[in-house]
Amino acid sequence: MKVVVCGAAGRMGKAILGALIDWAEDVTLGAKLEMGESIKEGMSKGQVVIDFTSPEGTIAILKEAVSQKKPIVIGTTGFTAEEKKKIVFASKKIPIVLSPNMSVGVNVVFKLLSSAASVLNDNYDVEIMEMHHRQKKDAPSGTALRMGEAIAQARGTTLKEVGRFDRNGIIGVRPKGQIGIQSLRGGDVVGDHTVIFEGAGERVEITHRAHSRQNFARGALFAAGWVVNQKPGLYDMMDVLNLK
């Protein structure tokens, strides 16, 4: 199978190119693309597309993927509501894996959080802390948002209703059921996420730390091999790993 890597000069793009050499046996590089290059020509050289660019870049790439009927794996984060609608619309024509985090370990954590939240109900306060390198442009991270969504869904609500993303000044008593998400940025941190369930007399913490981007790259390649055999639709890594 030949893959087209979009955003090849970025951090994740370089990690995927490295994984193609060091790890993947049945996957080869069809083309590597950066914005400004011919998306149409490059995409024709592979069976599946892996995209780690920017929200606006992804939408342009997605348009060509639909035109060429190429499955696509999207790891880009920071989409607006309107951009998400365009991805959903495209998924009616091609299979798409959309995930804020391609790590196998992180997706197991998503599963653990759903289970924990269903038992540790809203009598337990939830705080999510995430830290990434100083160059990361969006906050909170897509992974932290997905964690919050998993917990909220297990509690029968939505992150939109109960999420809190900043605190400053006289904020009053913490509301029951609130899910706090705090973002830290600095240095070259690949990605740390800790979820705290704070109850009366005890605290449960679930943490994932990424030591390199290779785990994300391997997950993206695994997703690429999976999505080429799927019908049009919108999938995530929970589907790829059969964790649902």
Provide a descriptive summary of the structure in words.
- By secondary structure, the protein is an alpha/beta fold.
- It has two domains: about 1-100 and about 215-240, Rossmann fold, CATH 3.40.50; about 105-210, Dihydrodipicolinate Reductase, domain 2.
- It contains nine helices and eleven strands.
- The chain has helices at about 10-20, 40-45, 55-70, 80-90, 105-120, 140-155, 160, 215-225, 235-240, and strands at about 1-5, 30-35, 50, 70-75, 95-100, 125-130, 165, 180-185, 190-200, 200-210, 235.
- A hairpin with a 2-residue loop joins strand 9 and strand 10.
- The radius of gyration is 19 Å and the shape is elongated.
Helices and strands in order:
Blueprint: E1 2-6, H1 11-22, E2 28-33, H2 39-43, E3 48-51, H3 55-68, E4 72-74, H4 81-90, E5 95-98, H5 104-119, E6 125-132, H6 142-154, H7 159-162, E7 163-164, E8 179-185, E9 191-199, E10 202-210, H8 214-227, E11 233-235, H9 237-240
Parallel strand pairs: 1-2, 1-3, 3-4, 4-5, 5-11, 6-8, 7-8
Antiparallel strand pairs: 6-9, 9-10
Helix pairs in contact: 1-8, 3-4, 5-6
